[in-house]
């Protein structure tokens, strides 16, 4: 088995959710086509990247609408969007959610006041011996120093889940420090149209996030040597693209369905009918 060459926050998160799912995705390289949330999120990112690339004074909702209108035909033709088989009503629903997320930025900040240092900034470095990759949505320059920003188009998590969510941006902060030689002062998750979760960058927090990344990396290396990838079942099996191949997952979705707990929009619904 070819060893994994790098780890991103998203692949680490897949590992934590279910090592068997990680194996299907990153060892067998089986497709994991994006769902509704992912395609909507990508489009929102594209519009905001274009908007924040403008001169500060031009970053208006009208300008955002111009970008959204210009990019919309690409969205409708995107194979990932076409795969979702949306009718007119479905596409209109996507359009409304995209616009709500884009304009949701103004509920969180005034984009004309942001000194953008970079958007969609690619990172590739080593963190505690782990080859790390990631993409920072936005890196801002402030009077106090750099700020790492990540956009989210879903709802903000409950407070209990917040530390997990911040791991991603703390890892970006550590990688920015290594690659640019400048330690960010703050990280923030913009849940567009909802709220911002932010934190001051302190060595203890970034070190802890890097240590958790290292633990995942060690677990993956061990699993690759032993070819043991545990199937970790749960409600997300209903949305796993590999459930058809996974006996434990199929059993789980049938159990959830029998209890009347499988959501009607779960893709795995077709395996319990
Ligand atoms: S169906 Fe569930 S247990 Fe199986 S790989 Fe997917 S997430 Fe893991």
| CATH third-tier fold name of the largest domain | Lambda Exonuclease, Chain A
What summary fits the major beta sheet? 5 strands, mixed
Task: Please give the radius of gyration in angstroms.
Answer: 20 Å
Q: From the helix content, strand content and strand pairing, which structural class follows? A: alpha+beta
Number of domains: 3
Question: Which second-level CATH architecture of the largest domain applies?
Answer: Alpha-Beta Complex
State the distance separating the first and last CA atoms. Answer: 36 Å
CATH class of the largest domain: Alpha Beta
Taking all residues together, what is the mean pLDDT? 95
Shape: globular
Strand order of the largest sheet: 1-2-3-4-5
**Helix coverage percent:** 40-55%
Number of helices: 10
Q: Could you tell me the strand content as a percent range?
A: 15-25%
Ligand names: iron/sulfur cluster
Low-confidence stretches: none
Q: How many beta-strand elements?
A: 5
Structure description:
- This protein is an alpha+beta fold and 273 residues long.
- The chain folds into 3 domains: 36-111, no CATH class; 115-224, Lambda Exonuclease, Chain A; 231-271, no CATH class.
- The chain has 10 helices and 5 strands, in the order H-H-H-H-H-H-H-E-E-E-H-E-E-H-H.
- Helix 1 (9-17) packs across helix 9, helix 3 packs across helix 6 and helix 8 packs across helix 9.
- The relative contact order is 0.14.
- Bound molecules: iron/sulfur cluster (SF4).
- Iron/sulfur cluster binds at residues 18, 20-21, 231-233, 236-237, 240, 242-243, 246, 248-249.
- The site of iron/sulfur cluster has 14 residues, from helix 2 and helix 10.
């Amino acid at each position: 088995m070819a060893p994994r060459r790098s780890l991103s926050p998203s692949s680490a998160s897949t590992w934590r959710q279910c090592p068997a799912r990680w194996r299907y995705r990153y060892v067998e390289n089986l497709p994991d086509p994006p769902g509704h949330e992912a395609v909507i999120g990508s489009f929102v990112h594209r519009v905001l990247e274009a908007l924040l690339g403008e001169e500060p004074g031009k970053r208006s909702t009208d300008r955002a609408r111009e970008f959204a209108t210009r990019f919309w035909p690409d969205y409708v033709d995107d194979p990932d969007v076409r795969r979702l088989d949306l009718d007119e009503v479905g596409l209109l629903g996507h359009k409304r959610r995209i616009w709500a997320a884009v304009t949701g930025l103004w509920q969180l900040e005034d984009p004309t006041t942001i000194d953008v240092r970079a958007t969609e900034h690619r990172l590739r470095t080593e963190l505690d011996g782990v080859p790390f990759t990631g993409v920072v949505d936005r890196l801002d320059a402030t009077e106090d120093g750099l700020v790492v920003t990540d956009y989210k188009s879903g709802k903000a998590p409950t407070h209990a889940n917040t530390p997990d969510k911040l791991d991603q941006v703390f890892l970006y902060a550590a990688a920015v420090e290594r690659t640019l030689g400048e330690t960010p002062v703050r990280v923030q998750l913009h849940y567009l149209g909802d709220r911002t979760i932010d934190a001051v960058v302190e060595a203890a927090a970034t070190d802890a996030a890097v240590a958790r990344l290292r633990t995942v990396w060690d677990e993956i290396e061990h699993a690759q040597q032993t070819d043991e990838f545990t199937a970790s079942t749960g409600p997300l099996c209903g949305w796993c693209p590999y459930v058809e191949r996974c006996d434990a997952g199929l059993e789980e979705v049938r159990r959830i369905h029998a209890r009347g707990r499988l959501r009607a929009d779960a893709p795995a619904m077709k395996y319990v009918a």
